């Protein structure tokens, strides 16, 4: 049995996307014109920016701070003017995903309202047009705690499995796998970014060779299932914020105890 191989390339021929554009038609035309075409089991990585543009998620840059606040579900940490927050999609990152790059001067972009729904719409339309099973990943760029720089992750997905749950299997030495659940949607998003880049004007990548993750169904558990939120979040606050909260709680408890002892 030969070792698995994948191919990754970016699509040419996608012009600037504006509000109201038929994104499925635009991507479909680029696929139809591509020399390698499209085959059953391909996965498309679509940068969230063109999804946001097509869906009209563009605002004036002067509204940036208000937009960040509106997109924020919870503040995790603040360092100077940078806000690390959990946004309404459950993703923790800087500025709630509000971004001014690769958008016309004087404007900002918000993330899509429902990236999984956007992925499902693209997936259904492109499957119907080409008659093959395709997976869709909607990607966005994110910084990570304890690591410099950024990487791309999946914020939307359809027509594919977003994780490869290996628990219950064994490793190459026969030892049981207890916690191993690779998030293949994030790995695919990052692979796509290697060929899409940030300044090439190529917002869609094709991943070939991972058909084992593509499903017959379009409506699959999407990227919204991936963030650890609520009781599953082990790092809910930045260090400074956690210390400050601990001091507040300790002071309140100590004050209450002292008052009770006098009564």
What is the assigned CATH homologous superfamily of the domain at 1-46 and 114-232? CofE-like
Number of strands: 10
Query: Nearest-angstrom radius of gyration?
Result: 22 Å
Could you give the distance between the termini?
79 Å
The whole-number mean of residue pLDDT values reads: 90
Q: What sort of overall outline do the alpha carbons produce when their principal axes are compared?
A: globular
The CATH topology of the domain at 1-46 and 114-232 is 60s Ribosomal Protein L30, Chain: A
Strand order of the largest sheet: 1-10-2-8-9
Q: What is the H-and-E element order?
A: EHEHEHEEEEHEEHEH
Strand content: 15-25%
Low-confidence stretches: none
Q: Which structural category fits the helices and strands?
A: alpha+beta
Architecture per CATH nomenclature, i.e. the level-2 architecture of the domain at 1-46 and 114-232:
2-Layer Sandwich
Major β-sheet profile: 5 strands, mixed
Query: Helical proportion?
Result: 25-40%
Number of H- or I-type helical stretches? 6
Explain the overall architecture:
By secondary structure, the chain is an alpha+beta fold. The chain has a domain of 165 residues: 2-Layer Sandwich (60s Ribosomal Protein L30, Chain: A), CATH 3.30.1330. It contains 6 helices and 10 strands. The strands form 3 sheets. The protein has a 5-stranded mixed β-sheet. α1 crosses α4. 32% of the residues are buried. The model has no long low-confidence stretch (mean pLDDT 90).
């Amino acid at each position: 049995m030969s070792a698995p191989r994948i191919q990754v390339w970016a699509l040419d021929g996608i012009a600037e996307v504006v509000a109201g554009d038929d994104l499925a038609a635009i991507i479909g035309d680029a696929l139809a014109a591509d020399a390698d075409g499209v085959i059953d089991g391909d996965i498309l990585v679509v940068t969230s920016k063109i999804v946001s543009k097509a869906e009209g998620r563009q605002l004036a840059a002067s509204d940036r701070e208000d937009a960040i606040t509106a997109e924020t579900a919870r503040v995790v940490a603040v360092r100077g003017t940078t806000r690390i927050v959990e946004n309404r999609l459950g993703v923790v990152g800087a500025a709630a995903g509000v971004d001014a790059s690769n958008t016309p001067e004087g404007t900002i972009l918000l993330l899509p309202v429902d990236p999984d729904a956007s992925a499902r719409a693209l997936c259904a339309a492109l499957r119907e047009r080409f008659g093959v099973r395709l997976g869709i990943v909607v990607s966005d760029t994110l910084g990570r705690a304890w690591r410099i720089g950024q990487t791309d992750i999946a914020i939307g997905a359809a027509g594919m499995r977003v994780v490869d749950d290996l628990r219950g299997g064994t490793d190459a030495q026969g030892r049981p796998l207890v916690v191993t659940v690779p998030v293949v949607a994030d790995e695919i998003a990052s692979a796509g970014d290697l060929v899409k880049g940030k300044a090439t004007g190529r917002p869609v990548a094709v991943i070939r060779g991972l058909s084992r993750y593509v499903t017959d169904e379009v409506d699959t558990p999407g990227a919204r299932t991936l963030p650890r939120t609520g009781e599953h979040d082990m790092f809910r606050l930045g260090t400074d914020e956690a210390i400050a909260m601990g001091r507040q709680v300790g002071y309140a408890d100590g004050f209450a105890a002292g008052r009770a002892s006098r009564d």
